[in-house]
Amino acid sequence: MQILFRPRIWGFLAIIALLGSTAFGTRDRWLPLVTRTTTESAPLQDTPEPNQELLVLTISPQARKNLGLISKPVRLENYSKKIQIPGVIVDQPGRSDRGITSPVAGVVARIHAYPGDTVHPGDRLFTISLFSEYLQKTQKDLFAATAETQLIREQLDRLRPLARTGGIAKSRIIELENNLRRQAALIKAHRQDLSTRGLNPSQLDTVSRGQFVTSIDVVAPPPPAGQPDRTTRTTPKSQPDKQPDKQPDKQPASRASLLVYEVQDLSAELGHQVRAGELLSTLANHMALYIEGHAFKREAPALETVAQNGWEITVEFAEDDPRHWPALEQTFQIRHLANSIDTASRTFDFFIPLTNQSRTYQQQDLTFIVWRFRPGQRVRLHVPVEQMKNVLVLPTAAVVREGPEAYVFLQNGDLFNRIPVQVLHEDRLNIVLANDGSLPAGLFIAQNSAASLNRVLKAQSASGKSPDVHVHADGTVHSAH
Q1: d(CA 250, CA 322)
Q2: d(C-alpha 36, C-alpha 42), whole Å
């Protein structure tokens, strides 16, 4: 039995081996059929669905407050395409700074105003002790001419009655009258000479009486021709407010309303010997300034067009806090273009007038002035070069980009729908969208935090939770109802 059973076992094993090798050799034919059958027979609920990116997101009121989210209706408008040009605030030559010089040779005896002090036209700045021989001689000549005139008049008073009776010749009277006219001319010339050297009319009258002036006061000059003589209302040092002004409209203009200078620097020291015409100090009044733009030569044609058409330029002031100052009620337009190019920077300049703002404060019975804009302060100029009509203008933070795509978020309550848009122009502040019908005018659009909203949308899409909303034909989104 064992001998007969063993051949059967070996035959059975040989058949199994033959079938296994045949199946392995033909696996490319039957294996796909088995796999497909297994897949088709599997339950549908076991097959995972790929995640689809959402277009609508929900955001809570608390999250909106955390983002500082602002929504405004979008409007069709005209937009001026602008280029950005750097600039700086500078003084207006001949108007902002005033050099104070010594009218005579002498020694600085007193200094009445120091750097930082405010002065008005006519306020004393320096007292100069005189030692000029010419000035002393001119005073002596004025006194001599005045005394001679008095003697001639006395002689005429005595001799005119004799001339009428024939006691003396009339030629003598004519000679004295001619001499009187010569002395009057000399007096006028001497007074004019001394006046140009700083002596006021009262001092000239004193010199005419024989009391010579040994020192003169150098005062703040009047405003230049064509410049406003009023800057800001301040309380003068010499007239402190002892009682309130009850009738300000009926009183004449006082020092409180006059032009204010600030002593910028001193060029002379106490006891310093100065010559006639030597600089003593510099006074500054920064009411009238220039914005000096620095442009390249290739931008000259556009700037010339802006200047010819009188287009308004937007000015962005660096290091300026408008919350502490009144609103700027002025338009900025190019006054003139420079006709030379800076050899170092290869730029040419253009100038825009700027009217400054100021305020004063009191400290230890002294008045100090603070200007809003200061020479050397940097600015950024947004110069219009092209007019774009019927476009949608949004802040740059209202648009988020993903590769070539750009999106905005349409708001309806706590829901935001992401809408693709076409960008026509973008600068540092604004972004201009095409009016292609994808964003109807009048709908509320998120004005900021578009990048944050897009991240929230992606997070909600990755979580697999779709908000229960539907989208209307006009693009608005609503919760299901």
Answers
A1: 34
A2: 10
Residues constituting the chain? 481
Q: Is 106 exposed, middle or buried (0-12, 13-18, 19+ CB in 10 A)?
A: buried
Contacts of 341 (CB under 8 A, 6+ apart): 297, 347, 348
The single-letter DSSP state of residue 437 is S
Handedness of CA 227, 231, 236, 241 (dihedral sign): positive
User: CB atoms < 10 A from the CB of 104, how many?
Assistant: 23
Residue 435 CB neighbour total at 10 angstroms: 16
Q: What is the pTM (predicted TM-score) of this model?
A: 0.62
> Could you please report the per-residue DSSP string of 83-117?
EEEEEEEEEPTTTSEEEEE-SSSEEEEEE---TT-
Contact call for residues 64 and 440 (beta carbons, < 8 A):
no
Q: Which of 9-18, 245-254, 357-366, 398-407 has the lowest mean pLDDT?
A: 245-254
Q: What DSSP string describes 220-276?
A: PPPPPTTS-S-------TTS--SS--S-TTTSPP-GGGS--EEEEEE---TT-EE-T
The DSSP code for 380 is: E
Across the chain, which distance is largest between two alpha carbons, in Å? 201
Contacts of 140 (CB under 8 A, 6+ apart): 212
DSSP H helical ranges for 50-200? 61-67, 133-165, 170-196
Could you tell me the CA-to-CA distances from 282 to 98, 99, 103, 264 in Å, in that order? 6, 5, 15, 6
Q: Given a cut of 50, is residue 441 above it in pLDDT?
A: yes
Joined tokens for residue 278: 């030597």
Q: Which residues sit opposite 405 in a β-bridge?
A: 402
